[in-house]
Write a structure and sequence with these properties.
single chain; about 550 residues; alpha/beta; Pyruvate-ferredoxin Oxidoreductase, domain 3; Rossmann fold; 8-stranded mixed sheet; 20 helices
Length: about 550
């Protein structure tokens, strides 16, 4: 049986509710037993500009959205002009005839009907929900119930407006079974999964300063403050956020900070301080095209080397990258747990495509790392940086009831076991060696988890990491040539299990113009890069286009 897929695009101006409409549409698909994936494309503008959201749904898991539309809904002329060329043969186009003209499709007087039903400012996005409902043969009663569940204000006006739009839609598709059972899943983004995973591992506080595409980490943590019992702190800057996080870790709180490349650059000094004071710190680095402000609302993988060599001086860190939303959930829990186990900073590296993209997620949290109690030596003999066989020192916090006489001193200077400053040569070497002892334990501990993934069983090897793996897994459905995807999850320490690929010839796919990932693989595994498939315009790969490039590379 051929798999069904259906892709809808909703386009309009910033502020017209494009994203919300797409989320509701994706929810409709999931409620009828289909899998769905959503991706938003928007400019860094509060009003005006061009926004659009894509939803792809299908019978089996959808890894990323497609770039050809079965249903195109346009609120303005620019949306028609930019997207009509990728409407599939037989696809349906509906547009706002008060704002746009097109020789194809069906125009609907969306603005005029808004004026009829609303007495004040209104949002045209309700039209997209009504169109989807009519096209998929949802009953009016079900449409009304959907609006009541999804919108909090102007319910009667929304329903009346949606019903009028619904009555004007004549085309239908045999797509959804209205007696199908909903998926047992949650429709969430990668950033939401990261917060949930860290919470499972004991997250107490999240610090951030808004910077796309990491901003929604802060938004979601703030939304869930009461239900998850975490504190979300909107600091005045990235510098403040990371230093406040270090202070909270000193007091015994499990903390995380997040930003994109520009904001994380400001955190470098504090990141290095975490290495010296041996502070457990989880950092989420969600990449976008750079340098500087770059293209602030799009996706890229330009921060790979930046994450691997973040900070100055030599110290242990853990760097890992999720290859799916479900992996983001587990990985954030793993990294926060590992950071506390070894008292080191950890970086979860991702990209806008995974951070903000949404999908239906089915998971069990039973396998996620749980928070574990902090250890320490009681009494006045406590030394914050005591040398141990593993290099991991005991950890107490101010106000400890078990050790009220302990002197607790964290120091950003080189120091003695007590935390007192030193600049003596032999003592410097002693403490550097002490910290470096952690490396073996970190590598062994990371191997408790899945350190790399493999998908497919073809002879052709394709290396990728992060959200690019999702694009490849979707492309695999449309590629006549079989191939195997190899995806490192842990980057530092590098997975020992990948040694079996040493010296192989492989295709490398990445969102980078300078082959950062390919060069990383050559360094670690002496990979012979057969073909490098790059995309660095800030946009995702279209699965069908990527499949064609893979066929060309295999047959070259």
């Amino acid at each position: 049986m051929t798999e069904r897929t259906f892709t809808a695009l909703v386009g309009g101006k910033a502020g017209e509710g494009v994203k919300k409409a797409a989320q509701v549409i994706a929810g409709v698909f999931c409620s009828r037993g289909l899998h769905a994936c959503q991706d938003d494309d928007y400019q860094s503008l509060i009003k005006g500009g061009h926004n659009f959201s894509i939803v792809t749904a299908g019978d089996s898991e959808i890894y990323c959205v497609q770039q050809n539309w079965d249903l195109l809904i346009c609120f303005d002329q620019r949306s028609v002009d930019e997207h009509v060329s990728r409407l599939r043969d037989g696809g349906l186009l509906y547009y706002n005839s008060d704002e746009a003209n097109c020789e194809h499709g069906c125009g609907l007087p969306m603005n005029a009907l808004m004026k009829k039903h609303y007495h004040g400012p209104a949002n045209v996005s309700m039209a997209a929900v009504a169109i989807l409902a009519a096209v998929t043969q949802m009953s009016k009663d079900m449409l009304g119930e959907l609006i009541v569940n999804q919108y909090k204000r102007e319910i009667s006006e929304n329903i009346a407006y949606a019903y009028d739009i619904y009555d004007l839609v004549e085309q239908r598709v045999d797509l959804l079974s209205w007696d199908a059972a909903p998926l047992a899943s949650r429709f969430i983004s990668g950033n939401q999964a990261i917060i949930l995973g860290a919470w499972k591992a004991g997250l107490d506080m999240y610090y951030g300063y808004p910077m796309t595409p990491a901003s929604s980490l802060l938004h979601y943590a703030a939304l869930k403050q009461d239900s998850l019992a975490i504190q979300a702190i909107h600091a005045e800057s990235e510098l403040a956020a990371v230093n406040m996080a270090l202070g909270s870790a000193l007091a015994g709180c499990r903390v995380a900070v997040g930003s994109s490349g520009g904001g994380f650059a400001l955190m470098q000094e504090a990141f290095s301080a975490a290495g010296m004071v041996e502070a457990p710190l989880l950092c989420i680095l969600s990449s976008r095209p750079g340098p500087a402000t770059g293209v602030s609302t799009y996706t890229a993988q330009e921060d790979l080397w930046f994450s691997l060599f973040q900070g100055h001086g030599e110290f242990n860190r853990i760097v890992a990258t999720p290859d799916s939303v479900s992996r983001a959930l587990g990985l954030s829990a793993e990294l926060l747990s590992l950071a506390w186990e070894f008292q080191v900073p950890a970086i979860l590296l991702t990209e806008k495509l995974l951070s903000e993209g949404m999908t239906d997620l089915r998971y069990s949290d039973e396998s996620l790392p749980e928070a574990d109690p902090h250890g320490g030596q009681p009494g006045s003999a406590y030394k914050r940086y005591s040398d141990t066989e593993s290099g991991v020192s005991p950890l107490l916090f101010p106000g400890s009831q078990s050790s009220p006489e302990a002197v607790i001193k964290w120091s950003t200077h080189e120091h003695l076991e007590s935390g007192l400053r030193t600049d003596k040569a032999d003592e410097i070497v002693y403490m550097k060696d002490k910290r470096q002892k952690k490396a073996a334990g970190i590598e062994a501990a990371c191997s408790r988890y899945q350190t790399f993934s493999e998908y497919g069983d073809g002879e052709t090897i394709i290396f990728a990491y992060g959200s690019t793996v999702l694009e490849l897994r979707e492309a695999m459905k449309y590629c006549p040539e079989s191939f195997r995807i190899v995806a490192p999850i842990y980057l530092e320490p590098f997975p020992e299990g990948l040694a079996k690929f040493r010296g192989v010839s492989a295709i490398v796919v990445e969102h980078s113009s300078t082959d950062q990932f390919a060069r990383f693989l050559q360094w670690k595994l002496d990979i012979k890069v057969h073909t490098a498939i790059r995309k660095y315009d800030g946009r995702a790969f279209d699965p069908n286009d990527l499949a064609k490039q893979i066929v060309g590379a295999i047959n070259a």
